[in-house]
Amino acid sequence: MDKDLPSEKATESPITGAVVPPSLASPDAERDQLGEEFELVTGPARSLRADAMRRLRRNKLALAGLVWIVLVILVAVTADLWAPRWLGDPVEIDSTTAAQRMLLPPSWEHPFGTDKLGRDIASRVVYGARVSLIVGVVAVAIMVLIGLIMGGIAAYYGGIWDAIIMRLADVFFAFPYILFAITLIAVLGRRGIENVFFAIGFLGWPSIARVFRSSVLSVKENEYVDAARAMGASTPRILIRHIMPNAVAPIIVYATMSIGGAILTEAALSFLGMGVQPPDPSWGNMLSDARAFMQSAPHMMIFPGLAILTTVLAFVLLGDGLRDALDVKLKE
Amino acid sequence: MAPLLEVDDLHMHFFTRDGVVKAVDGVTFTLEAGRTLGVVGESGSGKSVTALSIMRLVPEPPGKVVKGDIRFKGESILGLSDKDQRRLRGNRIAMIFQDPMTSLNPVYRIGQQIAEPLRLHKGMTRKEAWAAAVELLKRVGIPQAEERARSYPHEFSGGMRQRAMIAMALACGPDILIADEPTTALDVTIQAQILELMQEIQQNTQSAIILITHDLGVVADMADHILVMYAGKAVEYGVADDVFYDPLHPYTWGLLESIPRHDVEEKGALTPIKGQPPSLITLPPGCAFSPRCAYARPECRRKTPELVEVERGHYSACLFAQDTDFIAQFENRVVRVGAEPRRRG
Amino acid sequence: MIAYIARRILQMIPVFIGVTIILFILRSPGVIGGDPIRMITGERAISETLYNQLVEKYGLNKPFYVQYVRYLNDLVHGDLGTSYQKNRPVTSILWSKFPNTLKLALAAILIEIVFGILAGVISAVKRYSFWDVLVTLSTSVLVSLPVFWLGMLLQLIFGLKFKQWGLPYLPISGMGGDQFPQIVHLIMPAITLASVSTAYAARIMRSQLLEVMGQDYMRTAAAKGLSNAKVIWNHGMKNAMIPVVTYFGLDLGAMMGGTVLTETVFNWPGIGREIFLAIGQRDWPIVLGATIIIVFIVMALNLLVDISYAFLDPRIRYGRQAT
After folding, report:
1. Do both C32 and C166 map to the same domain?
2. Average pLDDT across chain C, whole number
3. CB within 8 Å: B18 and A7
4. Does residue C54 sit in the same domain as residue C96?
């Protein structure tokens, strides 16, 4: 608001435009101002990353999200070691005891209860975590790969390539995501997990491309301004150290949030029958099974849903936290 | 009769997570009708916060007046209720800001924005207020005022926007017009026009003007009194001529040395003041200016100077303002054209 | 402004063409399972001559661009193909269901606008208060919630459990008419459909208003003597709402996609549920046909939103005029 407000006011280094906090702008007239600034020029990339890490550590919600994600990863990765033995097999049906074990509410033996075929739900939730995590990570990896390439080409070459790629992105944006995914999977033929992460990844590239393109473009402009100011003092390497962190940061944030989105999409597709096929467990298809038993066995729908909610929330909070931590660095 | 505006040892501090920012740390001045006060200082000197404090526009957390008073026509405005404060704002005390592009609402027509205070304070109808707004635009020198009133801010040039801001501030015929860096964002040629306009208006309406700037050249012609601020404190205050030709503070000397002037024969080259203003959270000990002062002595770091009346109506916050030899250090550098160097008796 | 609208429409055209090409590819025989000839003749074996005659008739041996033009022609005439299972034109199947989806979508949009704006404004104005924290947290939760699970939860609690506990309850499926009037049946599905969008809308409203509140012209308005409420309402909202309104328009597309899940959970007889049933039956023409309808609606709405932007923001309406 008030330009005089000194708590926000910091002085700008005339060489790089890097912001020097008031405490460092010493009024000591004898110090060589130029030399002081130069120290800060080579420093920023490293100290800003440390700055961001510190800020992230302060954000309790984001940390909670991170902890949860690590937990889920651990559980999913190690599942084979303990889940079948302690909880029950997620897929195999023990036909001798199945009848008595159907639709049991949560108990000591079956913490999340059992489903319509007597399978332990907790075990299925654990294995479903595997599906969700794999889909999330792989789909987002595909998305980011394609998006970076497309966005990079558009931003770097500009001109007609930029126009073509952006129009293509518009075409993709015209389709509602789920419908597009459904039709794409139908096109690919087989329903199943492989097609799911390909579909999600393939359809998600426009967002990443747009984000990457705009940050590259904006940083490109800054680079020229800085180069003009630098009077030849700054080397290109320093500029790269400034460009890359700025361009990469929004991608990291977007990718993190997208993992959450990918998990939701996979759940929706499996729910509709286009994703993971029974008897393999996915949180989505477990919910689909649970529909018929809402009245008699509500526990069937509670736990897979909670699993989705908590895991996606963890990614969202982490993404939010990353955005706040990196944003202050971006906003000069 | 009480002066129009009295600012009495004002201290406005901001209580932030990183510490207490002493944005205004001791400012005193008075203002009479028809007079202009020039407030001069660098960014961060507290001049804008002082103005906002008079307008009562400083958000009260985190800001707080920890000491001092502001009196309008004899009555303290610090204790007024929100409603009463609003009755003064835009009505009896008006303010224009530095950047007219961002200070005007982009989605409303110029005429609407000028008419707004009229409808609010004078209870005019939409038609009456609009007609008055058009008249005001004419008065500030905007051609084809009827058409122009229907324009949006982005359709105006910088100078015209500032004129529109002035029209908006004058709408209710305020007693005091506060102008915060009104010409900084404008071209040099336009600057002169705007200042001329303000002078003309003052002659016609007898409003008092507080002209805030970092540029001494801007206040040279217009100001009756000058207040020099540094690091939230008033360091010099007096009649304009006194401050220009007989400055009593090294910071003022620095400001005068760093601008080109036509009326004095320069002996030395233009020299900017070295260094940066201090952080207002951790002020240096003693005199806030001493780290950058070319004439500083050891006592300066130990004793904090107060604003003291050195000659009649001429105040300085330098420990050595009354020491003629000390003052002579500066006088020796500048020779006023057509006059002998001032001797102090 | 005319220039702006013209430019926007011009930009839409390649997108439009791109969309139709993609849809054409998806619809082509062999791409999605099913031989269109088989579709017409059923499982009966047919003679080769008859097969070739049919190929001729439907132009399936013509080069791609000819088929494409024919396809566009079909679209313009509202022919979306024929359902595999039901052997009726897709258009007529969907046409009867379309108004139901419309009702649901409109109700959801209403909820989204009212609650999204309200929550966003309150949390921006009362920043850092309990209310702000509540809104921020709950929007994060809503965004992470699988929409269909929310629907199921609502069904469980307000439909089944409430009934069990003797409380006034809501119907959990269908469009109504039997025990409850239609509008009561609309409540839960509309809330479900609106949930995620409302969360996003609140977030956007909040961040836009916060950004606007930091602008200089807000300070000018306060300097004129306006009360805090008037400053926010008269000067702030008009600026903050511009991106929010455009968000509402753009979100429509996502909402249309969401109808598939919501209608399925609540057995609401709309286009979305048709898509779900068609998936189960592998009746791809219906899936594709519904997708086409929805895509075109979304595109038309996006164009409208783009154009309305010109009306809302005078800077676009009057462009840069030097003086």
Report:
1. no
2. 81
3. yes
4. no
> Can you tell me the distance from the alpha carbon of A202 to that of A179, in angstroms, rounded to the nearest whole number?
14
Mutate to test the interface with B, among C217, C313, C317, C318 (most CBs of B within 10 A): C217
C10 and C130 both lie in a single domain: no
How many contacts does A have with C, using Cβ atoms within 8 A? 132
CA nearest C238 in B: which residue? Answer: B107
**C81 is a domain residue:** no
Residue-number span of the structural domain to which C57 is assigned: 2-76
The ipTM value here is 0.82
Judge whether C94 is closer than 8 Å to chain A, CB to CB. no
Q: What is the pLDDT of residue A274?
A: 84
C137 shares a domain with C28: no
Tokens of C195: 């949930």
Neighbours of chain B (3+ CB pairs under 8 A): A, C
Residues β-bridged to residue B12: B24, B65
Query: Given CB atoms, is C214 within the 8 Å cutoff of chain A?
Result: yes
Which among C49, C76, C103 is the end of a domain? C76
- A residues 242-271 lying closer than 8 A (beta carbon) to C: 260, 264, 267-268, 271
CB B184 within 8 A of CB B208: no
* Residue C320 belongs to a domain: no
- In whole angstroms, what is the distance from residue A251 CA to residue A208 CA? 7
Looking at the fold, whether C234 and C259 belong to one and the same domain comes out as yes
- C153 and C40, same structural domain? no
* Per-residue pLDDT tens over the stretch C228-287: 888 998 899 988 988 888 888 888 878 888 889 999 998 888 888 888 888 877 777 788
Q: Which residues of C touch B81 (CB under 8 A)?
A: none
Inter-chain touch C160–A287, beta carbons under 8 Å: no
Please report how many Cα atoms fall inside a 13 Å half-sphere around the Cα of residue B108, on the Cβ side. 21
pTM above 0.90, yes or no: no
- Partner-chain residue, chosen from A3, A6, A28, that has the shortest CB–CB distance to B279: A6
Contacts of C27 in chain A (CB under 8 A): none
Q: Are residues C38 and C181 in the same domain?
A: no
Answer with the one of C76, C109, C138 that is the final residue of a domain: C76
Q: Which of C1, C217, C224 to mutate to test the interface with B (most CBs of B within 10 A)?
A: C224
Spell out which residues of chain B touch residue C226, defining contact as CB-CB under 8 Å: 86, 90, 116, 120
Query: Do C38 and C101 belong together in one domain?
Result: no
| Predicted confidence band of residue C218 (pLDDT cuts 50, 70, 90) | very high
Strand arrangement, sheet containing B5-16: B19-31, B5-16, B63-72, B75-76
C85 is a domain residue = no
Asked if A273 lies within 8 A of C14 by C-beta distance, the reply is no
- Confidence category of residue A280, pLDDT binned at 50, 70, 90: confident
In a domain, C317, yes or no: no
CA angle A179, A183, A186 (to 5 degrees): 145
Q: Which residues of C touch B182 (CB under 8 A)?
A: none
CB contact burial C50-76 (16+ within 10 A = b; e otherwise): eeeebeeeeebeeeeeebbeebeeeee
pLDDT at residue A268 is higher than 70: yes
Give chain C's domain count. 2
CATH assignment of the domain containing C199: 1.10.3720.10
The encoded tokens of residue C96 equal 């009867």
> What is the rounded CA–CA span in Å between residue B176 and residue B182?
15
Comparing A190-199, B142-151, B162-171, the range with the smallest average pLDDT is A190-199
Percent residues over pLDDT 90 in chain A: 18
